[in-house]
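Sample intake sheet
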Amino acid sequence: MHDPASPAGAGAPEGPPAPAPPPRRGRGLGIAPGEGAAVAAGFLFFFCLFAGYFMLRPVRETMGIAGGVQNLQWLFTATFAVMLAAIPLYGACSAHLPRQRFVPWVNAFFVANLLGFALATRLAPDDVRLARAFYVWLSVFNLFVVSVGWSLMADVFRPQQARRLFGLLAAGASAGGLAGPLAGAWLVPRIGLTGLMLCCAALLAATVPATGWLFRWRGRAGAGAGAVAGDAGAAPQDPGRPIGGGLWGGLTLVARSPYLLGISLFVILLATASTFLYFEQARLVAQAFPSRVRQTQVFSAIDATVQALTIAVQLFLSGRIARRYGVGVLLTAVPLAVAAGFLVLAWWPTFGVLAGAMVLRRVGEYALLRPGREMLFTVVDAETKYKAKNVIDTTIYRAGDAVSAWAKTAIDAISGHPAVVALTGAGLALAWAALGWWLGRWHERHGGGRQAGAAPAGDWRQARGPLR
């Protein structure tokens, strides 16, 4: 069994030298020679993933309102319970399956789920219990496939490559997030919800060949380049071998590492800010737009606006900010902006202000926070990338969702005024910003600038030092 406390790839020679400066045609995007095809594969991977998800997301939001805004916390709690139950199953699969098989099998599992929902929706289109089950399932599906997808990218690319390229890969997600709701709005009157589910299944299936190609490129020019075959120390990093570990290995890794605990708290604060804004969005949309059709149109318009703005930021700003100012700025700027948004919302609680705050938060999360968070995992070992990261991205994130949902319900019941929630959110966002700055500095000082042989950040003992 792989020891997560041992340095990633211990005993192997240092990785290949840094790539040559990008050619003129790729210099503006930070793409070095030999990386273009990998960037295209990663871009298409996330495009297909997010296009399928965002086809169905507006339907989920409408279903959530249909069940009653006052009952949303129960759906959040159910989602967390499903996430918690999935941990041992995920741990067993990731421990015994090679990574190059595990990643496509996860996506194939969710393709089968979508086919089942398509059949059930065809047979019982108005079943309320089916609608609630689909709401919970889509919330679980989203976090699992996105987390596994970013684990794949953190596994394939070296830290310095990630600093330059993760913004471009995230742009694939945003492009898919823009195409998905637009295609969904056009297709749903023609093929219905069942047809949308089948389209999503087809897009998810298209990620499987991209996964295989990326793992092969990893050995040629990515994180696995230069590894010595048969090196026992490097064996756990071989994507053709199982990761090992126990059913609850992800939780154990998180509990042992201050770094991973810090990332977990960062994710909880992110979920709290998102949940507070999400509940206010549901309340104000329900007040302003009584029609379900109009609500779906509003959610689709917000999604399209967010994705269009996000693509521009990811293509031209995310990589430049990361290279020039470091990961800490990516992780700090958005919480500070969200704190400002909460303060404005406390003073002026209207749908227009709320929509602006939601767009700001989501654009910042997708364009800056998401690439920044994923860069934090480029310096850890394979078990941490696939197990601890998944626990943080799914179970801990949804735990933050559930706790913050009930906290908002309690604040509303006690105060009866939306401004109290907004002011609470502003205070938590400031703490979120401070934690983001600390994580960024830790990453920079303990492996963020290394190309190979970095100690896994999952083990504090391998990278202890003062944070000045």
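Comment: The chain has one domain: 35-220+241-461. The two ends are 36 Å apart (CA to CA).
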